[in-house]
Amino acid sequence: NSEVFILAIESSCDDTAAAVLHNNKVVSNIVANQLIHNQYGGVVPELASRAHQQNIVPVIDAALRKANIQKEQLSAIAFTQGPGLMGSLLVGSSFAKSLALALQIPLIAVNHMHAHILAHFIDEEGFDKPEFPFLALTISGGHTQIVRVDGFFNMTIIGETTDDAVGEAFDKSAKILGLPYPGGPLVDKYAQLGNPKAFAFTKPKVPGLDFSFSGLKTAILYFIKKNKLENPNFIEENRDDICASIQHTIIEILMDKLKLAVKETGITQIAIGGGVSANSGIRNTLKEAEKKYGWTTFIPKFEYTTDNAAMIGIVGYQKYLHQQFEDSSVVSKARIQF
Ligand code: KG4
Ligand code: ZN
């Protein structure tokens, strides 16, 4: 089994992505971002599926060329079954089914959320792999989950958001400050220049390991409105401090729940994934937690944290080894049982 080549396709949201894996190593990883959505301040599903339709063939072609392999060498095709936008998922799954049929090779369906977590098992120089069991914190524009991972196919969600995802909390706060979409990276940038204790925002009271971020957005909105009444230039004069304080609050919300999860499970290996794990404050806080609490933390290579097909490919490889294949009647699922 040492010569497994998986072509992986990801199209769950607004990125069209394809990757080729040779066993657990990535040999090509191509992503076409859809910048069209930025002018609308969020992903427009109808536009996303149309862009996938345009991008999918060139992206897959580029992934195969970069990998420098013939499609006849492929062992299987893996694709994202869900969760995601239905119109977007359908483009990837239809293409995957057709190609698997044409090449007479197995078809593998992958859960996007499993992939964000198992991306840590891509063989990459300088990056350690976690050992089972570990805790995974998946944070992006669409997800906020704490997952207990006992094996490749044995995971349990132990906490998740009850409303907005953490990326949305960043983006919506940024919007209130007049920053362009997606504002998360800009909040991060300005936060590095500001005082995280300048302003205090109340943290939500959510029982157990679940999260809530919609209250924070409202609190920020009222805070800005009130201060702008007194000083119309409030945002301009305090931008860095406001961003630092918002980011500090979001990190505290995440860390409070992680600490509780560690306490409840006794597991001290923490792996993070999703676009928000690019955040410098979150990275620094997790590094500090290694010394402070004795945790071992895992942060994957940046290109495997945001939506990508390499993470679909590593799950595809594991499923290939376990012969977990689908027939062509497999359907896309906007919501999917974990
Ligand atoms: O994983 P991702 O690329 O796409 C999905 O949502 O699935 O995550 C995008 C999210 C956006 O909300 C974006 O603002 C946020 O990740 N993000 C950040 C940073 N970089 C990306 N949020 C805070 N700090 C960052 N440095
Ligand atoms: Zn994602």
Tally of DSSP β-strands? 10
Strand order of the largest sheet: 3-2-1-4-5
Q: Helix share of residues?
A: 40-55%
Which geometry do the CA atoms define?
Answer: globular
Distance between the termini: 28 Å
CATH class of the largest domain: Alpha Beta
- Total count of domains: 2
The ordered H/E elements are: EEEHEHEHEEEHHHHEHEH
Bound molecules: 5'-O-[(R)-(carboxyoxy)(hydroxy)phosphoryl]adenosine, zinc ion
Q: Helix tally?
A: 9
What fraction of the residues are assigned to beta strands by DSSP? 15-25%
- What is the overall pLDDT average? 96
- By CATH, the topology of the largest domain is Nucleotidyltransferase, domain 5
Biggest β-sheet description: 5 strands, mixed
Please, what is the CATH homologous superfamily of the largest domain? ATPase, nucleotide binding domain
Structural class: alpha/beta
Radius of gyration: 21 Å
Low-confidence stretches: none
Assign the CATH architecture of the largest domain: 2-Layer Sandwich
